[in-house]
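Quick log. Single chain, no ligands specified.
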Amino acid sequence: MLLTGIYVVVCIILYFFQEHLLFFPEKTDRNQTFQFEGSFIERNFKMPDGKELNGVLFKSKASKGLIFYLHGNGGSISSWSGVSKVYTSLGYDLFLLDYRGYGKSEGKITSETQLHEDVQAVFNKVCSQYRDKKIIVLGYSLGTCLAARLSANNRTDMLILQAPYYSMTDMMKDHYKILPPFILRYKLDTYKYVQQCSCPIVIFHGDKDKLVSYESSLKLKKYLKDTDTLIRLRGLGHNRITFDEQYTSALQEILSKDPALVTQ
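-> predicted structure:
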């Protein structure tokens, strides 16, 4: 009886405080001046509730279009900025967004709906400057479901997913088998949105990933179209996918094939 009571109390606590298990923001002083290499523009976006989200647009020398990048659940723009060189060197501008509570962004994440709405609002404003150019949405880990939903609901030329999870419910079953799935308030059903995407999808996943199993991408594979691709990164774990030679060489080849990016 005592154990049952403890179990119920733990489930209640996790239900109301699960943001602390999902999100690990790194804060940045709002008065801090960013010092990044290359050309970049810092931007702030006011949400309907008055909170401001912060983002940085890294500029390439001759832009072919935009890569809208949604990072993982830890760090901030300051720690993710290093990825910009990979994409700007390929001729694409790269936009990095910090979610609520991350970096210089105000507020805190309180629901999955809020998270999706924030990302959509910023996407609308940033991408309005790229109407006649290619728009690629890229999500890493936590950002993969957010990216898939954006591509499902908007005109995009490609969706790139790095180490995607099938759903957060699926992740919970892998890592917290003892907990009932119904307490999870962040479902983040990547598989649902992948099915709704009309643009080409490219998935990259390390086969030694211990955080988000490669099996997650194999589950997603059954929803991919003939124009979509799953690329197995051999011997790679969850981190530093962007800097792996397997990834960069495959990405360069994919982005050089312009017809594959033209969906409309």
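Residues 36-257 form a domain with the Rossmann fold fold (CATH 3.40.50.1820).
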